[in-house]
Amino acid sequence: MKRIILFSTLLYSAMAVPAPPSGERISFVSCPVVRDTRTVPCWTSDYQGDTYYLTIQSDVSAQVQPPLLGHKVLVEGIVTDRPSICGGIVLEDVHLTAMPELDANCNTILPADERITIDFHPRPPGPSAGRLAFQRDPSTQPPEPPPPTGPQTFDLYFDFDKGISFRHPGNLVGILDVAEKLKPSRMEVTGVRGAHLLSDGTVLQESETTGERRAKEVTALLHDAGINIDSDMNWIDAEADGIDDWQTRRVTVTLLP
């Protein structure tokens, strides 16, 4: 029995992959794990024998939205050497998106561990006192810019294989504001089907019609909101290079004078 245990330990050690060094980009798909704490639940995910801290449980006003139990999560970020959070390696410039397929294996909830604390001050009971993701905070608004001239281009970014969500009203309002001042004569809308080069060399692509679906959805919403001008729609497939591949999941809107 001791020989079997020793052999298993040596085999695991031989198969284990060292954690990436600080500054290295990492991209993987794995099950998320939610852990309770004394302040707020936190989310982690395991990849190649290491645990990575993703984010805390939060509402829609948070910059990084938490994953979903029952779905794998696509994780993109840069490894740091910051102190561990929630027992995981900390990533910066992290981008998370829940994969659309259901996965019954992704249902792990861990109890609170007294050794793990999160630097978080819970809000008072009741509805969120924070602003919604698409509301503007007057105290942080920059001075009124000069009227726009020439072509104006906007990028809207999406979750994997998804269309418009609660995160996009602010982007759409921004396009409408510029259109009102620019008085464009034509609009170009390009939907992009995203692609991701994962750290293990796998190339992950969105569904074949995703770019087309996004382009039509954004065009229809802008037309319904009052931009009643000629529109050219097209859709393309992106190429992945492992660097900020989350930006390939997008629609680009150009307003032409």
Shape: globular
- The SSE order reads HEEEEEEEEHEEEHEE
Number of strands: 13
Helix content: 10-25%
Portion in strands: 25-35%
Distance between the termini: 78 Å
The helix tally amounts to 3
**In the residues, how many domains can be counted?**
2
For the record, the CATH class of the largest domain is Alpha Beta
Quote the average pLDDT: 86
Described by strand count, sense and barrel closure, the largest sheet is: 7 strands, mixed
Q: What is the CATH topology assignment of the largest domain?
A: 60s Ribosomal Protein L30, Chain: A
Can you describe what's shown?
- By secondary structure, the protein is of the alpha+beta class.
- Helices cover 17% and strands 30% of the residues.
- A hairpin with a 5-residue loop joins β10 (195-197) and β11 (203-205).
- 25% of the residues are buried.
Care to give the gist of this entry?
The chain is an alpha+beta fold and 257 residues long.
